[in-house]
Write the structure tokens for this entry.
Amino acid sequence: MSSGQPSDSKEPRADLLREEEEEEESDEDRCSSRPTSPQAGRGGAGTQVSWELEAATDGGTGSGDRGSSAADSLFAWICKRTVRRGPFVDPARDNFRNMTRLYSSMSPATDSVNLSTQTHGAVFNLEYSPDGSVLTVACEQTEVLLFDPVSSRHIKTLVEAHEDCVNNIRFLDNRLFATCSDDTTIALWDLRKLNSKVCSLHGHASWVKNIEYDTHTRLLVTSGFDGNVITWDTNRFTEDGCPHKKFFHTRYLMRMRLTPDCSKMLISTSSGYLLILHDLDLTQSLEVGSYRILRSRRAPLSTGSSAGSRSGGSRHTIDSKTHPHREGLSPRNSLEVLTPEIPGERDRGNCITSLQLHPKGWATLLRCSSNMDDQEWTCVYEFQEGAPPRPPVSPRCSLRLTHYIEEANVGRGYIKELCFSPDGRLICSPYGYGVRLLAFDEQCGELADCMPVRTALLREIRSIYSHSDVVLTSKFSPTHCQFASGCLSGRVALYQPHF
């Protein structure tokens, strides 16, 4: 603004608006010229920081002939990036870009937790506490191990946590967590008193494989190879257990998950079906008929361009109006039976071994193997309901295959547990004797920003081989730029950025 003009005149304000618009366009042009892949900038996060400092020194205008000082330019640049909320100047998005560049430089930590002993066996599951202060390890030989993930310091070993292998761990809050086992029980533990269990829960008739927790109702939800999904009321637990009831039953059950908002339940099966309970109400039990009824309703995969093919496979919705077993029940728990489309498996059956959900509830992540066990795939399916705005599709087409990649078919017969990063931009997938970091595009973009028109391949950001045996599980820290992996021989590796 010229100093000879009155500050309350209208003409200079119009000039200032035009100047700001030109500056914004200059910002966008400069952002678009940034490296488009993590490999393009060898400095990782340092590349991002140096770019920001370079932009800050000229006030974000692309020219250095302005009369203001460097401090004033830096302040104006920061203020402008804070106020304006666009795809190029959103601070939250810049933070995600920094994080994904850090992830692209991940390497095994020099002080990784080495658990290669003869006592605990294979590592089946890893779980961080919500505040990231504790890493728990579920082991094959009845043990649960606890570590400080920052210092890699061993905290505690629960030597006889169960009477058989420990399969899954779930934190209810920062101090209370649950474990499940092939001994058919679930155990509750308190980090403040690890000498004994809070209580043991009995109700399953076979191996208990995974645990979920509804934060709204404080119901613990477990599933096992007996085909049962059981809810446990933790509001009323005692030393003898807590009230429970069978919520759902189906044959060939493998994994069960709740969406982040607890509005849906997804159940994967060894026969290739994916069951989705919409508008979930865990306070009511469902009695669905035998699995033969569901199998008889299976339809072949659609290969055309109809709405059915956009859903990622055949689909059936069962509600209280059309299914006799649902009469008199709440219409909230409507059941949908899907046969997810698997690349290369159109004419063969498959087994859905691992099931995870996007942290924002936008998609589901599946690890599938063929019935012959000679191929493995990682697939991402977008939820058509409650997902980011997409071109309109027919209602109730819940899933659409968006991304996939073929996995190394190593360690046949073992389930490999994959996971999303906390921001949902990266996937950590066990890959032979190591792990792969996968993304939806080269820039590690949001799923909502890089949704393909046709099914696309996941992009490999980094492969890390740090184990001497098959990797079975992986997990991102919810608070630190770190992830962990565990293998068949019992070793746990921690990964952090390498500068």
